[in-house]
């Protein structure tokens, strides 16, 4: 049994990652519809139902994602006669796969000790995990660009160009905003960064990234929202216009672009949780239980601590998913020139200044 345990654990952690990404992507489509309806004082999704006898079960609209999947699977897959079929079919995969594999370096719980051996709740533990995260996520721009080009449509091409310009612009500021955390914690490995956030500042304040680098949190979240092409940065899709890099797509190819957007929402939520909000850490919860700075504590078993920490990660993840949905239905869309100006003339100089100040402070503290 011990020989097969590492392989069984690989299946467990890979299944856990896919359960988080694929298990939340569908309900998020329902949550976005329901939340937008509540904000706009509408009823929201409530028509899809399963009829059992004389009674219809609507489940508060939760059946709508299932109806969407059935519709996408049965919908005709139309292709522009002038389209480049190879690139046209490849583009949805290039958009979806980076969104899936980026989450591999995010730890969704502490190491689990079985028979004296520690097994990680993280698919891939890389020394340069942060660099891997940015390198893989940046590949998504090729998917949207190819989708616009291969569709042989002027409107799709315009959406692809908008997406490429926007994503490249904000990747610079997003990467620079994280470098302050790397300097402070002294690591590029997400799990080590989460462990470091278990310490206390001034004896009572958790050493979370949001307290260490509050400006970096604002910069990163703004840039990540623009990177995902969501309102108020949805110029690549233009939902109120007849434009968008996937305007020529239908069926499951469109569904893959749609799914990639919501998986990216989950990835951003997981990244924010990991880098700025302690990941699976709970304030004052150590490996053996709670230890309060004002004295006293509460002893807990290893299993109880593990369950609490995994629950903490999932709670933070769901909160930031909700927050991104709320943001979408709260802010109006920016103009294209405003989006470019914000990225290059505001976020980039501020992120550079934040990095320089952080480097000076870290050097002064270590002197």
How is this structure best described in words?
By secondary structure, this protein is mostly helical. The protein has one domain (72-366). 61% of the residues lie in helices and 7% in strands. The protein contains twelve helices and nine strands. The chain has helices spanning 5-39, 64-74, 85-102, 129-137, 140-150, 154-185, 190-196, 209-212, 214-227, 251-276, 302-328, 336-366, and strands spanning 50-52, 55-57, 112-114, 117-119, 200-201, 205-206, 285-286, 289-291, 297-299. It has a three-stranded antiparallel beta sheet, with no helix packed on it. It has a two-stranded antiparallel ribbon with strand order 1-2. β1 (50-52) and β2 form a beta hairpin. The longest helix is centred in the first third of the chain and has 35 residues, at 5-39. The radius of gyration is 22 Å and the shape is globular. The termini are far apart. The model has no long low-confidence stretch (mean pLDDT 87).
